[in-house]
Design a protein that fits this description.
Two copies of one chain form a homodimer.
Chain A (H helix, E strand, L loop, with lengths): L1 H10 L6 H8 L3 H5 L5 H24 L4 H18 L3 H7 L1 H8 L2 H15 L4 H18 L11 H16 L8
Chain lengths: 177, 177
């Protein structure tokens, strides 16, 4: 699965075949087929745990009191997930193949829509929706960038992404910083 | 070229062949080959005018006085370009095939790096770099989303994206709004 994600990153989902993955691993194609009959089955296996995590975060954020607390819980949860899945998240959010796949799983599309609604809830109407879209796509891409200053300090990266997201959404830091 | 962009959006660059485009247009493959011998040549022809525009925007922003005015000029210019190229920009920024291609053209990679440096110049170090990455990727993705409230009102979309970007970067609106 790690080999598949690396291939998705380099060649995109549509440009990746099970044959390429088995070649990369030095396995026969039938060894891969034993686990995944199609690329979609492989993609589903990769997405399943991340979407499960995201659904838990969305449900927890929805249970917070008030739209600002809900947006903040969603933001901080998503940033933590994005940092923990730093290799995977930028690949998943930019690739048209993943978008197609999500549309074929209405339960997962619904989770993404609930996430967007939570982030958009701070400001009514389109103003909130545009900011939610900027924050979600922006964080998913920015988490994959190399910042020389950060090195391996993922806590620093996480802090900076939360700060950026709060600014965009118009949320104050809980400690007023 | 419009057919190619639509295919990139649906199937990503790696999942698009010149054969698919000629099939879609009801042309023979040799009719396409008359104009583009490879998919990279086609991608280059699509990117050329956009990168030319972006380079002009970057040069204009660099000539503004002070880092805040530079960042604001870069932001407003990029949002205007993204709205004008609303079909193309979300495809170009998310696709790994485009990233690979940009790396093969150091002159174009340099333009993107200058754009990021202008947006990051408001705040020193990593704090500014993270916000620049969020703004650039966030706007490129958010411009492609459908907002029911906006309909065909692209000026409204442009305003909302500029507002979101200024917030993230910590820039005031010139009129203090």
């Amino acid at each position: 699965m790690a080999t598949a994600v690396e291939s998705f990153r380099r060649h995109s989902v549509a440009g990746t075949s099970l044959q390429m993955i088995s070649d990369e691993l030095g396995l026969t194609k039938s060894a891969i087929y034993h686990h995944f009959r199609t690329r979609d089955e492989l993609l589903e296996a990769i997405l399943e745990p991340v979407m499960g995590e995201l659904e838990k975060l969305v449900a927890a954020a929805e249970s917070a009191r008030g739209s600002r607390a809900q947006a903040d819980a969603m933001l901080t949860g998503f940033v933590a997930l994005a940092v923990a899945q730093r290799t995977l998240i930028p690949v998943l959010t930019g690739d048209p193949g993943v978008g197609d796949f999500l549309r074929s799983r209405p339960d997962w599309s619904a989770v993404v829509q609930r996430q967007l609604a939570l982030l958009a809830g701070v400001e009514p109407g389109m103003a909130g929706q545009v900011k939610a879209a900027v924050v979600m796509a922006g964080i998913a891409a920015a988490v994959g960038v190399d910042y020389p200053e950060a090195g391996d300090d993922l806590a620093r990266l996480q802090d900076e992404l939360v700060t950026a997201g709060r600014r965009t959404l118009g949320l104050r830091s809980p400690r007023g910083a």
